[in-house]
Design a protein that fits this description.
363 residues, alpha+beta, five-stranded mixed sheet, 8 helices, 19 strands, globular
């Protein structure tokens, strides 16, 4: 691609962004993107403006039912969210292009921070470097090698669309000398965009964003403020947590299976795993009183593929012992990644729960 072609404008996308309420001075053109408000990415010519209309739809009935905009509120969100199933199994890949920077250490800490907001179903699996897992990821964090990030921006991120997380976070390699705490702040901030959070301090009546009930008119401590003073991240503001809990609350069936289940970073032996079990034979446990069904079906998944029907008609007693190893292709390795167990009501298959992805380790 020639330099002239790489800077070719996309008038349709540009006019759309203006029509959504973004100010012209907040839209910066880079080689292949329009950068909005310093760190929000919209790719030229490959952005479907019809999908954008749906994404920013002011008359989105579901959003209007869930979001009360009758107050002047600070925490802003986009009109598109990650689906309930996806959001507790987000797979984040840190690209090899970031080796030698502080980002490979900051990203797991940022994931842990988001995953462990109380009463929120967010959860992650972290993938670092291995090309065997370079595809099939929900969010990829990588160095900006195409000139997308403006000179004065540390990083940029895309927003959710069609029920999936914003797929890309691009890092400006001119800022690799930031402290670990500063990089962590930017990692938490950009992940917030991938999850659907806008800048806290840039809402206005003409913008295409929704407002989160229960937050004040301003929040100087929010990690989602647009202007960074290169501060270190220490904790979310209380209203940051209100916002993310509002977007991604637990549903009734999300806690049907009680074991194996856990949050990213909660296992001290495997802090970068969503959860880990150190045996391939486990006692699966669930809340037997949550769903009225005489029997349940248990299924085993790996990498989102059904590997084995553990049992067809298990009495709904809340517990079932199962050997997983023979069905996880663990020959020659001690590990099985991205494992899940699904429970289904035999009385009504519409009632089911799927665990977060976990690691099986057999020493």
């Amino acid at each position: 691609m020639s330099l002239t072609e790489s800077y070719k404008p996309d008038p349709a996308l540009y006019e759309k962004l203006l029509s959504y309420g973004f100010r012209a001075e907040d839209i910066v053109e880079t080689k292949n993107y329009y950068c909005v408000e310093g760190d929000m990415l919209f790719r030229k010519f490959l952005t479907d403006t019809v999908l954008l209309d749906n994404f920013f739809a002011a008359d989105n009935a579901q959003a209007r039912q869930r979001l009360d905009s009758t107050f002047a509120l600070a925490q802003y969100i986009t009109g598109s969210l990650v689906t309930s199933t996806k959001v507790e199994n987000l797979r984040v890949f840190v690209d090899r292009s970031l080796v030698g920077t502080g980002w490979p250490d900051a990203v797991p800490l940022a994931l842990r921070a988001w995953a462990n907001v109380p009463d929120c179903k967010l959860n992650f699996t972290h993938v670092e470097y291995s090309q065997a897992y370079a595809t099939g990821n929900d969010i990829v964090v990588k160095a900006d090698t195409e000139g997308a990030v403006p000179l004065l921006s540390v990083a940029m991120a895309e927003f959710p669309r069609l029920g999936v997380a914003g797929p890309t976070i691009l890092i400006n390699m001119n800022y690799t000398s930031l402290s670990p705490g500063q990089i962590l702040w930017f990692a938490v901030h950009e992940l917030g965009h991938c999850l659907g959070l806008k800048h806290t301090d840039n809402g206005n009546n003409n913008s295409p964003w929704r407002l989160v009930p229960g937050t004040p008119e301003s929040d100087p401590n929010s990690v989602m403020n647009s202007i960074s003073n290169y501060q270190s991240f220490t904790a979310f503001s209380p209203y940051d947590m209100v916002a993310i809990r509002y977007l991604y609350p637990y549903r009734q069936l999300d806690k049907w299976i009680t074991y194996p289940e856990g949050k990213y970073g909660s296992d001290p032996l495997y802090p970068r795993a969503g959860y880990a079990v150190n045996t391939d034979a486990i006692d699966i446990k669930w809340n037997k009183d949550l769903v009225s069904t005489p029997t349940v079906r248990l299924e085993l998944y790996k990498n989102d593929v059904l590997m084995h029907v553990i049992a067809e008609s298990v009495p709904n007693t809340g517990s079932y012992f199962a050997e997983l190893g023979p069905y996880l292709d663990m020959v020659g390795t001690e590990y099985a990644y991205f494992v899940q167990i699904k429970i289904i009501s035999n009385a009504d298959p519409a009632y089911y729960d799927l665990t977060s992805k976990f690691l099986v380790y057999v020493p």
